[in-house]
Write a structure and sequence with these properties.
The complex is a heterodimer. Chain A is built from five helices and nine strands, in the order H-E-E-H-E-E-E-E-E-E-H-E-H-H. By secondary structure, chain A is α/β, with parallel strands linked by helices. The chains are: A alpha/beta, B alpha/beta. The structure holds iron/sulfur cluster (SF4). The site of iron/sulfur cluster (SF4) has 12 residues of chain B, from helix 5.
């Protein structure tokens, strides 16, 4: 199979409006991925599927990732004049990276027996602009998995034929796989509480027992 | 009625007498037909128990019925999610009396490894009267067989008359249990207080 750089170059030639980035991966597997902007994601995915050299006809997995707001700290060197002498001083710059949701697709080719190519798309934020294009029209097998990403993370897939909750029931509130989801306190009793459960249990001990 | 002592004495002399109660319980204890359904990994062990190597047929419990109308025993084998719990209770309600419940595995007893999760019921005993609980994750097929034998013992010792006669002979006790509804995060009610209440733990 071509390298990601070659794929990216061909994609950019075929779809000049698409914004494509190669994301590095620091973990041991080092699986890099293609990040595409939501607007051109459908066209990019269609290209990956229909291109004769790639022919990625099989979407093996769709999953979601929640990236909450994160404070990034960066150390930069600045030149400063201290006591009349110019010196390099390290300064810590803090910036806030707003959170977003991500959908990840793993694509393989059954025809040419290669893969995977990992495709990622990101929403604008985690609250009101959580739309992404659905790739179910391209890979039929993505249907349930996109429903799962919607159910657990709250990504809304435009163009999905039947976007409903799949694991939780219809009246459920919230998206339980988001990092900031807090399940309501349903503590009943615990014979041997420890760690977080102990903290939770303490709130429920009656006052006489505590003393 | 016949006294146990006299019965033993007669049996030694080669005269076999029995009571209607014994005959009735003996028949029921040896034809406990379970309902075919599995909820998670424990169900695999349940299947193994019914296959040739462990052979649940030796205990008259191999006839897994595909319809609750024909089943006597509900083996809750596996994780009961909050989404699944109302359906399990409804299936139980559809079973005719007399009916029994075996909670198989850590999940069915207490939520098991998923107890602190957002979508797992902390034990089917919150909604149904459980007769036998089998600990383990998963319990071995032998453990399920032991549970069936325990249940058989329980059936054999049931009195057909008197205040502690079983539910199916007592018209005042309900055979159906309220089916919980889906709430915004949990089931409503989160347990059936008539069946289960949190034990008071003193600290
Ligand atoms: S108790 Fe263990 S084996 Fe049984 S359903 Fe739960 S996790 Fe699976």
């Amino acid at each position: 199979m071509e390298t990601l750089e070659q794929i990216k170059a061909r994609l950019e030639a075929a779809l000049p409006q698409a914004k494509i980035e190669i994301l590095a991966n620091e973990c041991a597997a080092g699986e890099r991925s293609l990040l595409v902007d939501a607007a051109s994601a459908f066209a990019v995915a269609k290209f990956l599927r229909d291109d004769a050299q790639l022919c990625l006809d099989y979407c093996s997995n769709v999953t979601g990732i929640d990236w909450p707001d994160k404070e990034l700290t960066e150390k930069i060197k600045v030149k400063q004049v201290v006591d009349g002498v110019e010196k390099e001083v390290e300064e810590v710059k803090k910036s806030l990276r707003p959170g977003f949701l991500e959908a990840v697709y793993h694509l393989y080719s059954m025809e040419l027996k290669h893969g995977p190519v990992v495709l990622r798309m990101r929403t604008v934020n985690r609250t009101d602009q959580t739309h992404l294009p659905s790739l179910t029209p391209l890979w039929r097998g993505a249907e349930f998995q996109e429903r799962e990403v919607y159910d657990l993370y709250g990504v809304i897939f435009d163009g999905h034929p039947d976007l409903r909750r799949i694991l939780m029931w219809d009246g459920f509130k919230g998206f339980p796989m988001r990092k900031d989801y807090v399940a309501p306190d349903d503590f009943e009793y615990e014979p041997t509480p420890h760690d977080e459960v102990l903290e939770q249990a303490k709130k429920h001990y009656s006052t006489e027992v505590k003393a | 009625m016949i006294e146990a002592g006299l019965k033993n004495e007669l049996q030694k002399q080669g005269v076999y007498v029995t009571t209607l109660e014994d005959l009735y319980n003996w028949g029921r204890a040896n034809s406990v037909w379970p309902l075919t359904f599995g909820l998670a990994c424990c169900a695999i062990e349940m299947m193994a128990a019914s296959m040739a190597r462990f052979d649940l047929a030796r205990f008259g419990a191999e006839v897994f019925r595909p319809s609750p109308r024909q089943a006597d025993l509900m083996i809750v084998a596996g994780t009961v999610t909050k989404k699944m719990a109302p359906l399990v209770v409804r299936l139980y309600n559809q079973m005719p009396e007399p009916k029994y419940v075996i909670a198989m595995g850590a999940c069915a007893i207490s939520g098991g490894p998923f107890k602190q999760g957002y979508n797992v019921l902390k034990g089917i005993d919150r909604y149904l009267p459980v007769d036998v609980m089998i600990p383990g994750c998963p319990p071995r097929p032998e453990a399920l067989i032991h549970a069936i034998m325990t249940l058989q013992e329980k059936i054999l010792n049931q009195k057909l008359t008197g205040p502690d006669r079983p539910r199916h002979l007592n018209a005042d006790v309900p055979g159906e249990f309220p089916v919980p509804a889906y709430g915004e995060h949990d089931l409503e009610p989160p347990n059936n207080p008539e069946v289960w209440q949190p034990p008071a733990i003193k600290r």
